[in-house]
Specification:
The chain has 251 residues and is of the alpha/beta class. It has helices spanning 13-22, 40-48, 59-67, 102-110, 125-131, 140-148, 187-197, 205-209, 217-226, 240-247; strands at 9-10, 30-34, 51-56, 73-77, 91-96, 118-124, 149-157, 162-163, 170-177. The protein folds into 2 domains: 3-177, 3-Layer(aba) Sandwich (Rossmann fold); 187-247, Helicase, Ruva Protein, domain 3 (Orthogonal Bundle), CATH 1.10.8.100.
Amino acid sequence: MDKTLGQHWLVDLATLEEIVQIGQLRKQDLVIEIGPGTGNLTKLLSKAARQVIAIEVDPRLIKGLLDLNLKNVTVIEKSILKVDLNQYQDYKIIANIPYYLTSKLIRQLGQLKTKPTRVVLLVQREIAQRLTAQPGKLSILGLTAQFFWDIELGPIVEPYKFDPAPKVYSQLVILTPRKDKEELQDPEELFRLIRLGYSSKRKTLFNNLKWNKSWSNDQLRHILQSNDIALNIRPQELSLQQWLNLIKYWS
């Protein structure tokens, strides 16, 4: 077991079964499991779904997964960050993912053209809280996730239910694509603006954004005041809708 990969295997059967239940799997479903590891969850998914695609980056675990001899499970040895998920249609994602991978994965899933209909992730509890944070504690990760997804928090999972036990609590998060999402011609422009706004959390939004050469300082003051945004506000205090209002002025 390689702790550098952030591997903590969930071994509690009741929690594994609860994950499958939260996934709302049907017999005709295609489900992609990220980081199947020793196959504890894979075995349950194979019974609930039509087909399971298990994506595992650690070559030492592949043989054990193949030895399970699950006929409706296809094992792919590759990092999920290098898999083109746009090749799949009408699928769900269920995973107990390594903590280090969470932020990158959620950004990647949000930018897919063919998004999964449901995503169930077991993540570090702190990450779950960041995903659902409200203005005052909003991070770039939270804004990104909330732009693309409706997010629901599931049960908290105690460390003793893993092997080895992590030092932190975990929590299930459920993501479903937002149906009321504001359509932008280039969503990446929104995230460029947000990254600029967050370039220094200790500074005000005005001081961070004034480096944008598209706006003079006078224009920036006018834009913020026109959107009822105080000049001394900090980036984490803005709502997603306020960022969406600001992007309309972005050049």
